[in-house]
Design a protein that fits this description.
The protein is an alpha+beta fold and 471 residues long. It has three domains: 10-77, no CATH class; 117-210, Phosphorylase Kinase, domain 1; 216-467, Transferase(Phosphotransferase), domain 1. It has 15 helices and 14 strands. The protein has helices at 27-30, 36-50, 71-77, 92-112, 178-186, 219-233, 238-258, 298-318, 325-342, 347-361, 369-379, 384-395, 399-403, 411-424, 457-467, and strands spanning 10-14, 54-59, 64-68, 117-119, 138-147, 153-159, 165-172, 196-202, 205-210, 216-218, 261-262, 271-276, 279-284, 291-292. The strands form four sheets. Strands 4-8-9-7-6-5 form a six-stranded antiparallel beta sheet, with helices on one face. Strands 1-2-3 form a three-stranded antiparallel beta sheet. It starts with 9 loop residues before the first strand and ends with a helix. It binds adenosine-5'-triphosphate and magnesium ion. InterPro entries: Kinase-like_dom_sf, Prot_kinase_dom. This is Protein kinase domain-containing protein. One of its GO terms (molecular function) is ATP binding. One of its GO terms (cellular component) is nucleus. Residues 139-442 form the Protein kinase domain.
Amino acid sequence: MTTETDSPRVLHTQRIDIQESGLSGDLTELVKDLSPTSQARTILLLQSLRKNEAVIGVDDQKRPVIQYKDERSRKLWWDASNANILTKPRTDDDVQVKMDACLEMIDYLKKHKAPSGVVLDPTHVSSKAGYYREGREFTKTKDVLGKGNSAGDIIVIKDKTTQTESAHKTMMISYFREEEIRAWVDLSETGIPPALYCFKLEGNRIHIFMEKIDNGITLRDIIDTHMGNIRAEDPNLARPFSLYVFHGLLSAVHTMHQKGWTHRDLHPGNVMLQESEGVIQTRIIDFGLAKPMDSEDGLRGFRSDIAEVVRKFTALYIDEEFDSETDFRKNWKDKVQQMANLYAMSKEDKVELFSLIDSALQVVSLSDVPRLQEELATKMNFDPQSLSKQVAKILFAKPEFLSVHPDSQDLETELQKIKLAMGTSKKTGQSTMDQADSGDFIIDDDDGYFTTEEINDNFLDNLRKQTGLGW
Ligand SMILES: Nc1ncnc2c1ncn2[C@@H]1O[C@H](COP(=O)(O)OP(=O)(O)OP(=O)(O)O)[C@@H](O)[C@H]1O
Ligand SMILES: [Mg+2]
């Protein structure tokens, strides 16, 4: 039995204003060419959009998909998982089709002794007689670790026998791809993903039990809130911390690629920084879109992963995340230049930033990565351990610590203030770089500002020649 594995995943959603897009007229007029059933459904859909009960997003293949805010109606309209649950066929033909499918499945289970799940770590998952059930073998706690698009809440559960905690993720079969598990298991020795304890099929949902990443924060949260605290503590921390994360994430992604997997969904909610005894490590979660390096999409996935790593770097360093990978590749020179000017970066820091992004974008194969890693290492003119300790104190501060910062309740305001403050410190040229040759770069304007004309191919070519690292 084969299953369709590339089911759509909603990547982002966007509101559609029906009033403004000319759909406010008579809806029946709009759908008159459709069949009666489709007419009824389309009208319901448009009404849901109008009432903002539903939003339209795009899946990973850029196809529009509907996402309902209300779980019940979402099931009705957007649940391709009507598998492994009871069905009530409406016609005799349908009875035959459904019976055949069900009997085929029973036959398959019998023939292959197919289990409903696999326990990979019995020290965390104490199944009894082949079952691992809520209320019996484990209990749910009230702790919610996060929320995903394809998964619901990721919650903490407690094993009744061992009293150990795990993170529990569930998703509908339609969202599930077997590569999620295959990549995860292949990477288990690396320590990059959380340890996978068990996965199983129950009804029309896949259940995953995994290591709870303690003392972990997603890059989403770090970009959105914690960078403000870091800059408030010391504006000079932004550069080394961003380089540190760039380096850590690049190594993790490189290891993943060497193990034969591309992730293809490295958005900031899928990367976590975890603190353990003052050391910050990079963890990657959610292999829901993973594909083998040697698949047809391997190279695309590889390039996308590398671009995503750089986007995390710019998001942390200069608060520029870019709208998409395409936006990044197309507009990075303009956008980075604007933000670098806004942050009043020194000439040396700007040259370093442009050089790193440019080098990363030239990575097209696995064998190019070590050169980028070397270049990155030469920029890391700080002690990673003490940096890690210093930042960990800020990132993983107890609430009492944060409350001493007067603006901690309004981090957005704080970030704005810091940006302004950095703007006024432009003349002091606060570079944290200690590179003897950095003053010799080709750019000869002394205002430290780059203009669009300056960031051109010649500029980048010169950078490559001077660093000797371009290729
Ligand atoms: N093992 C874990 N430990 C701690 N937090 C976790 C863990 N797994 C997931 N989370 C949290 O839950 C969130 C959603 O998890 P996950 O990315 O696996 O769900 P998803 O539905 O596949 O996400 P997406 O929105 O990327 O499709 C994460 O961003 C993270 O905050
Ligand atoms: Mg995710």
